[in-house]
Amino acid sequence: MPADxxxxxxxxxxxxxxxxxxxxxVLVMGEDVGRLGGVFRVTDGLQKDFGEDRVMDSPLAExxxxxxxxxxxxxxxxPVVEIQFDGFVFPAYxxxxxxxxxxxxxxxxxxxxxxxxxxxxxxxxxAVEHHSESPEALFAHVAGLKVVSPSNPSxxxxxxxxxxxSDDPVxxxxxxxxxxxxGAVDPDATPPPLHRAQIVRAGxxxxxxxxxxxxxxxxEAAEAAAADGHSLEVVDLRSVSPVDFDTVQTSVxxxxxxxxxxxxxxxxxxxxxxxxxxxxxxxxxxxxxxxxVGGHHAPYPPARLERHYLPDLDRVLxxxxxxxxx
Length: 326
Hints:
Layout: E1 4-7, H1 8-22, E2 26-30, H2 46-50, E3 55-57, H3 62-74, E4 78-82, H4 93-100, H5 103-106, E5 116-121, H6 136-140, E6 146-148, H7 153-165, E7 170-175, E8 182-185, E9 198-201, E10 206-210, H8 214-226, E11 232-236, E12 239-241, H9 245-255, E13 258-265, H10 270-281, E14 291-295, H11 306-309, H12 313-324
Parallel strand pairs: 2-3, 2-4, 4-5, 5-7, 6-7, 10-11, 10-13, 13-14
Antiparallel strand pairs: 1-8, 6-12, 9-11
């Protein structure tokens, strides 16, 4: 099958469709995923083609959705469940961190939890409270969970396929502001491993590390910096747990500077762990402290104020200038 250009949302739909076709044990479940096709239409048409016994609309009960998925996994199925918005995941947090993440270790390795939890996350769509949060660090802190986030349609397709095949639970964060971005998807390609970072733009003066919705912003920052004579390398982390520190380290050893960008609050965010690890690994290589750009340590604001909360091009470039000034 030749590569085709599609939106990130369509790539996710194609990935789920392929998973349902390839494995009868794959099930899709969540609020409005069936007849409606999901709030963002990611599951559009799946219930019609695969039936209500494989693509199931659930009650409005996130804890019940995840608890049921755990039971299905114990019964040999591979459930893919959707949490309708990022801020709605917290009623299921207990099931995720107390049961889903622990059962493999608790059983001495005899039980597997092949569960994927899809979560649209992040801001930039003008939504109300509890619809624009970035809680990835809360899940990355929990041993037993894999946490990933694609930034483009090709990764969305392949990373979801890899997540569904995983015998471990995967928290799959989908950047909702990128659902309508387009790109080429080749179903016959050979994808990189699920947790390997990718260099999406080469550079020599400074490394920008991001994942999910912030990767495109960093590429735009690198393009803007090039006009001023600065060469920035952009690394798409792709996975927040585990983190491919080796790829980041190799980049920083070349550029000697690092700025980490994410929408989540900087305070205790994923960027803090990256900064600490790279500072330790590259102490004698760094020519400036590792700097971070992210959201503020405050509740996500109303839609009219979110542009002041989210990292933007000016904030990223100002931080780049700060690093280059050392």
